[in-house]
Amino acid sequence: MRPAVRAAVRAWARVPHPRGPGLMVLGYHRVAERDDDMTVRPSTFAAHVGRLVAYRREVPVVDLDRAIRNQPDGWPRRAVAITIDDAWMDVHTNGLPVLVDAKIPVTIYVPSGLLGARDHMTSTQVCEWIDAGMTVGGHSRSHADLRSCNDAELEREIRGCREDLEDLLGVPVTSFAYPFGHLDRRVRDAVAAAGFTSAVSTRRGWTRPGTDPLRIPRCIVEDFDAVTFRAAIKGGLNVLRGPDAVRGRFGRSGP
Ligand SMILES: [Zn+2]
Is the pLDDT of residue 77 over 70? Predict the structure, then answer.
């Protein structure tokens, strides 16, 4: 485990938790036998899901979109929402069956132009998430850094993604994840104008009453051991700041 993460877990007990309702949004990317910061191993993922089930009374797992729509009256004091970005094939193979068995709701964020591309889910596989009761959100068409798009490109990447997914799935698509977690005011407003009502970033923190629903913080999950995962779902990694929170080596598949 990286030293910064280990230090965050140690510091966690000393960090005051919010008094009112607080939603912790966790973000995954890949579930595979790979060794990088964007991947958790299948055995780790199963252990994380097992812990979510074990903690469910204390920290219920909620559907992100529904929680944002109902905020804050419909929230328990503490809740966690699970998101998975990029629609990797290994998440369908190694993640979906575990989630279905455990009845854990998640939102997957899909770059609509990459469906069927190498190592990515097919259109049929994305439909299987809806059939399993999960939520599908938009993640642009091509996983571009939206800040560098002109207005026409922005419209294609954001509204186009929503239309692609709604045509495919036949259900409203109302949640969005910014590729790489990158956004500015223009990108945020374009996401709102395209009809999305919630959007997640990669800045760590609690989602609380009053949080901009189009700038929802998230904690990106790595191949965490049990202690670190417990700290993550209870907001313990929010103390990670600076270059560790937004690192520049994610590549195209990044958050
Ligand atoms: Zn991504």
Answer: yes
